[in-house]
Amino acid sequence: MPEHPALARRLSFGLVTFYGLGTTLGAGIFVLLGAVAAAAGPWTPLAFLLAAAIAAVTAMSYAELVRRLPVCAGEAMYVDAAFGRPLLTRAVGLTVASVGIVSAATIVNGCAAYTDFFVPLPKDLAITLMVLTLTAVAIVGITVSAWVASLMTVAGIAGLVLVIAFAGRAMDGPGVLAALTPPTELKLLGGITAGAFLAFFAFLGFEDMVNVAEEVHDARRTLPRAILAALGIATLLYVLIALTAMAAVPLDQLAGSEAPLAILIAPYGVDVRIIAGISFMAVINGALVQTIKSARVLYGLARAGHLPALLARISPRTRTPAVATVVVSLLVLGFATSLELVALARVASFITLALFATVNFALLVLRRREARAAGLSRAHLWLPLGGMCLSLALVVAELVTVVTQMD
After folding, report:
1. DSSP one-letter code for 216
2. How far apart are CA 221 and CA 66, in angstroms?
């Protein structure tokens, strides 16, 4: 008999898809569009497409792995199944949780500025109130958390559609074609790659979905479809927004802007507070999902014996890992006053790509092991091998870009 109750399976296909979109549609497009434009220039839509293609290969690997092993602390457990090294398992799990905690902290920090549009508050007070609210939502139950995340995700989608509806009228066929056609100059291709590395942060979110596998109805069937659906919706919206941005405003005005969507919508007389409110909900939603994800990773590691058992305690009333959630929230609050979003995006993308390479390698090992046991062909190894190579290639490309900029 287990000492504590299990997590409650209450998430449907729709709820878990919107849960994943909650992170994917957060800080990436609402804040980082200007930074991507500064790197990729008029080929910003192409940078988003490149980032989506790289993410899609690994997303398919995640879809297969969650079908094989639908448990919390997904990445760590996949690595554990492939290599059986407790130290590596613990390192991968803590890295995933740490990226989630730091991401949530930085997102909360960035959201504090939006409160001035509605209720001016001291920054530290605004951060504290947001973290306390997110903690309460995360603890009260996965159903409430998922519904809150879904409603804020719908608001984020509505905001993007609003921008496309107004500013998208500036798009034309030749402009769209030019923005999606790669240049031939090596220097310009380097800028697109650098933009894709930053844009990659905007697609992170599908990997968070595997960490609520134990709270999803028929996870082996539901989660793979939800992962691919979330990534597909995000890709469509991002490319449309990037195409709109290239057509609607001068590049030098967009590049580096911290509020790119406000710039796009301002000429059409839309109250900036509407976009501010939508942006706030979309971005803070990312912090909620990261908090939930990180708590589930700590819970999964503790249950498997890799962390103190206290973190595996589940509230009998809410059926959530309350202790792990409180620990994560305290860490988020501690980090939230000292981080900056674009720097985080680069660091988080770098670490996540390394994790993706590791997860793909784990799937490669599992597939090879099965092929040898059954005497099968190795042709089916292309997916994890491709995901691993693409992830590592983007890491190397970014390192080359950083070194080049230092010269």
Report:
1. B
2. 9
Establish how many alpha carbons lie within 13 A of residue 67's alpha carbon, considering only the half-sphere containing its beta carbon.
13
Contact in structure between 249 and 169 (CB atoms under 8 Å): no
State how far the Cα of 383 lies from the Cα of 206, in Å rounded to an integer: 17
Residues contacting residue 116 through CB under 8 Å, at least 6 positions apart: none
Nearest to 326 by CA among 304, 299, 286, 301: 299
| Cβ–Cβ < 8 Å for 146, 289 | no
Kind and range of the H or E element at 157?
Answer: helix 142-167
Rg for the chain (alpha carbons), in Å? 21
3-state helix, strand, coil in the chain (%, to 5): 80, 0, 20
| Pairwise CA distance, residues 42 & 181, whole Å | 10
Helix axes 272-303, 322-335, angle to 10 degrees: 130
8 Å CB contact between 62 and 203: no
Q: Which of 271, 279, 290 is nearest to 332 (CA)?
A: 290
Q: What would the two tokens of residue 221 be?
A: 């069937």
Kindly report the backbone phi and psi dihedral angles of residue 384, in degrees, each rounded to the nearest multiple of 5, phi listed first.
-65, -35
Length of the chain: 407
Mean pLDDT of 46-68: 91
Are 156 and 30 in contact by the 8 Å Cβ rule? The answer is yes
Residue-wise pLDDT for 353-386, tens only, equals 889 999 999 999 998 888 776 655 555 678 899 8
pTM of the model: 0.84
Closest by CA to 13, choosing from 207, 228, 195, 186, is: 228
Nearest-angstrom CA–CA distance, 133 and 318: 16
